[in-house]
């Protein structure tokens, strides 16, 4: 075996070792800083810091929910303050699961729209209590209308 060949082998061994360590190091850093959290209600995945995940879990009885779901849960608690946080989260999770299992067309998007709709509707209700302007027509809804007549 020529010296040159040996040297080349040694170099490639060293560089693969370096690669291994670099990969190890970066994954350790990722674990500390960013972690993928999956919303236990709608299933949305977000990259969050472990600190943030712990904080969100602490606020929702150990359940991690995404920003939008946490808004809906908060809204539910505002409307029914006697509801326990755990029940509010569970209720919302059931709502999401039901929605996901019944909506065929792009469930994630429709669910997001439905949640925004809930938040929007409750905002409208709140403002109508103190302010009696002519009713603003809702332009369009991305949620398919449910027809109760058969
Ligand atoms: Zn969510």
What does this molecule look like?
The chain is mainly alpha-helical. The chain has a domain at 32-118. Helix content is 64%, strand content 5%. The chain is built from five helices and two strands; from the N terminus they run αββαααα. The chain has helices spanning 3-33, 50-59, 67-79, 85-102, 107-130; strands at residues 35-38, 45-48. A two-stranded antiparallel ribbon has the order 1-2. A hairpin with a 6-residue loop joins strand 1 and strand 2. The protein is elongated. The termini are far apart. Mean pLDDT is 77; it is low at 130-134. Bound molecules: zinc ion. Residues 39, 41-42, 44, 65-66, 68-69 line the site of zinc ion (ZN).
Q: Which ligands accompany this protein?
A: zinc ion
Q: What letter string, H or E per element, gives the SSE order?
A: HEEHHHH
Structural class: mainly alpha
**Strand line-up in the sheet with most strands:** 1-2
Estimate the helix proportion, in percent.
55-70%
Tally of separate helices = 5
The best one-word shape is: elongated
How confident is the prediction overall: mean pLDDT? 77
Largest sheet: 2 strands, antiparallel
Query: Would you identify the regions where 5 or more consecutive residues have pLDDT less than 50?
Result: 130-134
CA-CA gap between termini: 86 Å
Strand content: 5-15%
Number of strands: 2
Query: From the alpha-carbon coordinates, what is the Rg to the nearest angstrom?
Result: 25 Å
Pfam family, one: DUF1677
Protein name: DUF1677 family protein
Organism: Theobroma cacao (Cacao)
InterPro entries: DUF1677_pln (IPR012876)
């Amino acid at each position: 075996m020529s010296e040159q060949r040996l040297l080349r082998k040694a170099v490639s061994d060293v560089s693969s070792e370096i690669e291994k360590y670099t990969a190890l190091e970066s994954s350790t850093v990722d674990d500390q800083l960013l972690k993928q959290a999956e919303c236990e209600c709608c299933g949305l995945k977000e990259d969050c810091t472990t600190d943030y995940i712990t904080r969100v879990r602490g606020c929702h009885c150990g359940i991690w929910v995404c920003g939008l779901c946490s808004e809906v849960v908060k809204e539910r608690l505002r409307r029914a303050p006697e509801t326990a946080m755990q029940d509010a989260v569970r209720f919302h999770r059931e709502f999401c699961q039901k929605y996901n299992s019944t909506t065929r067309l792009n469930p994630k998007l429709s669910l997001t729209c439905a949640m925004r709709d809930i938040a929007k509707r409750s905002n409208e209700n709140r403002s109508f209590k103190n302010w009696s302007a002519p009713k603003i027509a809702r332009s369009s809804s991305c949620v398919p209308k449910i027809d109760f007549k058969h």
